[in-house]
Specification:
CATH class of the largest domain: Alpha Beta
Largest sheet: 5 strands, mixed
Low-confidence stretches: none
Number of helices: 11
Number of domains: 2
Order of helices and strands: EEEHHEHEHEEEHHHHEHEHH
Number of strands: 10
CATH topology of the largest domain: Nucleotidyltransferase, domain 5
Helix content: 40-55%
Mean pLDDT: 95
Amino acid sequence: MRILAIESSCDETAAAVVEDGKKVLSSVIASQVEEHKLYGGVVPEIASRRHSEAILGVVKKALDDAGISLSQVDAIAATFAPGLIGALLVGTSFAKGLAMAANKPLIPVHHIAGHMAANYLAHPELAPPYLCLVASGSHSHIVEVCDYTKYRVLGKTHDDAAGECFDKAARVLGFPYPGGIHIDRAAKLGNAHAYELPKPKVASNPYDFSFSGLKTAVINIVHNAKQKNEEINKNDLAASFQRTVCEILSERTFLAAQNLGHKTIALAGGVSANSALREVFEKECQKRGMKLFLPPLELCGDNAAMIGCQAYYDFLAGKRADEGTNAFATFPLEESENFCKKF
């Protein structure tokens, strides 16, 4: 089964052709990073306009690279939630029109489910049940993957996502957007124990996250130093910040794994590309006798191949959309299984 998948939830216009949820026949991404870098972050209005300009060419190239025509596609999939609403509407509207014109089934895919599915492309042996940490610029979730389309969210952030915290800390340190990769590089040159930073906990749920206090602590350190005309070691602060984020993410995840008895762990999302986070999880899993699955770096960020993979399992589960399907800026992952029954 060949699925043409479209992803447009943030600032990457992506299309891919995936066969049977395993084999990537093509994957095309048009990134807007250089333009948004001028503003220090994603500007939603600009993102939507660039998606509108790029999507036709990206989809055509995905089909050409796969060596097939639209008539040879069995279904069309698109990210319907969550994300920037204007950006999502471009992708879902284009997919709806294409599906209607070509008389193909339309499969709506939840973005977080797509990130987790990236591991299936790289590790066909991975199968539910397992525990997955999804960490990106907009999401920080600990998810119990009960089946390929059934999820239980055990923990999530109450404020900033981990990736958002990386970007904001990087900005105050003077690094360009996107900040995560620059924090990672600087941290390799610094002392990770130079600063002791807060690790906020959420009283209502031991698996939940809160990163706003950590972000504020970094901002205050930099601002206080400037007021006193003192120099700070950016590499040391970056390393200490990165260590703290990794400890927060790993401590919550392994606590959930221990309490629920999971022996298989996966990482997903843009932050899963962070070298320190991967190292921490590798060491902890080895120490605890757990299996760890990491997505390759090219599948950590937003892409359509992961959407095509998840769409295959959604299709097998009977998920279909029609011309009335909408896009949503927020939509609970646990309810995505019944999305088409509700709308």
